[in-house]
Amino acid sequence: MLGLKLPTDPRWVNIVEKNIEDILTDHAYCEQKATSTAISLIVSFPEYTDLVQEMVALVKEEISHFKMVHDKILENGWILGRDRKDDYVLQLITFFPKGGSRTTQLVHRLLYAALIEARSCERFRLLSEELEDKELAEFYRKLMVSEANHYTMFLGFARQYGDRKEVDQKWNDLLDYEAEIMKNLSKSETIHG
Ligand SMILES: [Fe+2]
Ligand SMILES: [Fe+2]
């Protein structure tokens, strides 16, 4: 349903389980970046009224996810650590050539956002199914549902604002590229690592 072409190696969960503090830290910053992306889309594309309205709602939801993860960190007696770069996202966002019309740039940013949401959703699903800690598993199950809605929303906007056929082709090409990136990942205790 997410369209991803390469599923995560389930052994990734074993790596994560050995370091819950690291995964929660990385996860908190994923939620912060999702919030920042929504704000940035508002600033960059203010004339797309439907998008602006949805991004306002998304900012609130993603920052509330950030708080949920932050609360989990505090519950465990930890303090949020510093952010680290997300190699997966850095590689992903080199796929489309820079430039083009405003609509083209918007479509590219929406497709990147859709894919990051889809992969996050897949990772959360795996955590919700495989984690030994049932309370944490339930925490990830709830978040999985939210991220699936975000994936659908971003892809829907790309199709609404761009040429449908062209957008579908770009989405398919991006999925192929993402599967190549994933071949070298699933080896570290980060949401996309
Ligand atoms: Fe989120
Ligand atoms: Fe999200």
TrEMBL record:
InterPro entries to which the protein is assigned, alphabetical: Ferritin-like (IPR012347), Ferritin-like_SF (IPR009078), tRNA-Hydrxlase_MiaE (IPR010386)
BP-aspect Gene Ontology terms: tRNA modification
Recorded superkingdom: Bacteria
Gene3D superfamilies the UniProt entry points to: 1.20.1260.10
GO molecular function per UniProt: tRNA 2-(methylsulfanyl)-N(6)-isopentenyladenosine(37) hydroxylase activity
Alphabetized PANTHER family for the sequence: TRNA 2-(METHYLSULFANYL)-N(6)-ISOPENTENYLADENOSINE(37) HYDROXYLASE, TRNA-(MS[2]IO[6]A)-HYDROXYLASE
The protein's name: tRNA-(Ms[2]io[6]A)-hydroxylase
Source organism: Gelidibacter salicanalis
